[in-house]
């Protein structure tokens, strides 16, 4: 069987639209009645004003900043974001707080089950089945994605092995010891495990991983292919966040990601105006409404994720809408010397054409009146001095073609750049740090 939920995954478009509109209206009224944030925010708009999916566009977005403000009031620590009586809350999670004060996220048992169920779609779509022994190479702490992955694996019937409290070498030994054949990780950490395995004299392909599910960072197609080559396995991507949940995942056709309908209403809006839905193949900002989670109601949450809208229809038979690719975060897009620049383009070039580069870092700074963009590239051990010079020249050329910018390229010795297990921070805009001082 190819579907986790054959009925919900193959509905005709009109049925999805109808169900999502009716769920949206229900969530709208629920949020207005039960959450302090929406009691204020939705004042003056009534459920009866929402008669079509177009009418939804009149409702204001929810931004992270205002959520922080509403979190400050009682009941501690969720404040006006809570949609259920506090005694009903059964688990605490939070965002990582990389962009400011963390958001605390309450789940009731019912909401948590809803979240796990939607995650099952992601796992099943990526081909995870009861025959898989899945290694999760992280300590979970308060971060929701691991817990979702853990409980959804169990529900799908996989055998889940928690891999916290070990260093990377210890994790590699554990994978070998228990013969894990599935893994879930960030793309960066997948590459790092492979690198570490090689340094131990172990070919990553010999670990026996059949299937890998990635998340946590935008994964360019070239990075996905590189992981597939290293481990000789199938690698899948998905996208989500602590607040809106995971809302789209890649199926075995590996041609974009399916939006998990009708669990989520996802709008992909023109990034300048945030008004109009973009056309297929265009980049837009994802605005997400989870349609069945009551402990933490969210209406039109601005994820700030930039995605390319995908085509309709898929060889896997699922009928839900698709996104073609995750481009990055609106926060990551910068103007450098007047050119719009996305760090993901650099990663795509490096992973595709430069097998000899292990790690990298991009730095933008201002010297005098001029923006200077620098790539620090870490060479493979064993690269000769003359090949390092050649790589440098090739890097400058390829990056110029891909980004329209002239890079200052510095080659760094093996092992000198930081390694990341969770969200990699490979892009530094020092112009901004100056401005914020
Ligand atoms: Zn598909």
Radius of gyration: 22 Å
Average pLDDT across residues?
94
Most strands sheet: 11 strands, mixed
Cofactors and ligands? zinc ion
Proportion of strand residues: 25-35%
Which outline best applies?
globular
Strand order of the largest sheet: 4-3-5-6-7-8-9-13-12-11-10
Element layout with pairings:
Layout: H1 13-34, H2 36-41, H3 64-71, E1 89-94, E2 104-108, H4 109-125, E3 133-136, H5 144-156, E4 159-162, H6 168-178, E5 182-185, H7 187-199, E6 211-214, H8 221-231, E7 234-241, E8 245-250, E9 257-259, E10 264-269, E11 283-290, E12 301-309, E13 322-329, E14 334-336, E15 339-341, H9 343-353, E16 357-367, E17 370-379, H10 385-403, E18 408-412, E19 427-429, H11 430-436
Parallel strand pairs: 3-4, 3-5, 5-6, 6-7, 16-19, 17-18
Antiparallel strand pairs: 1-2, 7-8, 8-9, 9-13, 10-11, 11-12, 12-13, 14-15, 16-17
The structure holds zinc ion.
Residues 251, 253, 258, 314, 316, 318 line the site of zinc ion.
Describe this entry's structure for a reader.
The chain has 437 residues and is of the alpha/beta class. The chain is built from 11 helices and 19 strands. The chain has helices at residues 13-34, 36-41, 64-71, 109-125, 144-156, 168-178, 187-199, 221-231, 343-353, 385-403, 430-436; strands spanning 89-94, 104-108, 133-136, 159-162, 182-185, 211-214, 234-241, 245-250, 257-259, 264-269, 283-290, 301-309, 322-329, 334-336, 339-341, 357-367, 370-379, 408-412, 427-429. The strands form 4 sheets. The protein has an 11-stranded mixed beta sheet with strand order 4-3-5-6-7-8-9-13-12-11-10. Strand 14 (334-336) and strand 15 form a beta hairpin. It is globular and about 70 Å long. The termini are far apart. The model has no long low-confidence stretch (mean pLDDT 94). Zinc ion is lined by residues 251, 253, 258, 314, 316, 318.
